[in-house]
Amino acid sequence: MPANAAEKMRNSHIYSLKSACATCQKRNLRMKVLLEVLDDAAQLLKTLDSLGGMRPETRSDIEAILQGLCEESTRLLREVPAEVAVTNALNGMAGSPEHTISGLDADITAEKLHREWLMQRSLEALAAPDYERALRFLSEGAEAYPDGIDFLNHLGLVYWELGDFEQAADAYLRAMTAAFALAEDDDSQRGSVDWSDATNQDYLRAMEGRALCLCRLEAYDEALVLFDTLANISAVDYAGCRYMAGEIHHLRGNYSAAIEDYRLGPVEPASLYNLGLAYYQNGDSAAAAATFIRAFVSNIHVLHAFCARDIQTESCVPGYLGGRDYALDFVQACQPLWGNREDALDFMETCYDHVLVQAYLEQCRNSGGDSILTDTAVGNGQESWLDVISDESKVERLAENVVRRLYS
């Protein structure tokens, strides 16, 4: 390229940047005016004991003014990252060549800053929590950056919290699509994508979010495929997906498949109570009784909540999983499975009321209390506590006694 042509391009670029800076100065002036108006409004409001002291029409006018000021301030703030990039670019051109920022670099810097600004505002709104405000920022981010997996995953979360499961499922699907494309384009993974790799966690997170939404929408076929896929990719990180798959099979009356998935899922009260119910419905009373006894050890409050029994005892296992709040959440969530199952509830109560089961639970409560002080398994969760304080062979013998008494 001829030198004079290069110089003309350079001069043209500098002129564009100077024009942009002139625009920045005008914006700064507008911002100054806005701040002065905000200060006046604040001074006015300071003289009032409460907004209730205003006439309704005055209060409405002030609210409208403040809302407008807020929106205008937000709009101006969005332009700040671009202005920073423009200023840096102009400073670079005025200095030595090695510090010069090209127009493309300035655009990239502005985009990065704007993207970070939107995400920061979104996270602040989520922490508030102000889901409607978070929705505005996340929607803007998802529209401006279609490959922004973080915007889309958070957008799915906000829609979930707002109870709009269709929109949430759609956001998670868009996140999956964007994450899949990025993984496929990654040279280090070309031809053989390792989905369990940490770099692909956003894809798995989106898949899990979509599966949960599909469950709420009763689109069980696709949800089941997604839960199975996640559990097969990482049996440890997505063990909960086995439980969810078991619940879908359970709702459909496929008790054998439900039992298999529940057994592969995490050991916690929800899995144990539902597994006991599946065994009972599948005609295996002994396995049902043994599982219910382990469930009582895990969280006795679930039995109390299901059967409306006011028994003032504590669970053998400490923490949230053994507490009343967990029990109430579980009972509410699992009404589709447990509703109108009076026969199963009667069987469960029979197991609980057996004198040997009562003695065993008391023994577990006592040993559980000692284990809190002495056992290091607490860090491994409820499964470790159950292994410490619960004797599986003794539970099986107890179950045999319960069933023998029931059918004798």
TrEMBL record:
It comes from the Bacteria. Pfam families: TPR_16. TPR repeats lie at residues 149-182. The keyword Cytoplasm does not apply. Keywords: TPR repeat. This is Tetratricopeptide repeat protein. It comes from Bradymonas sediminis.
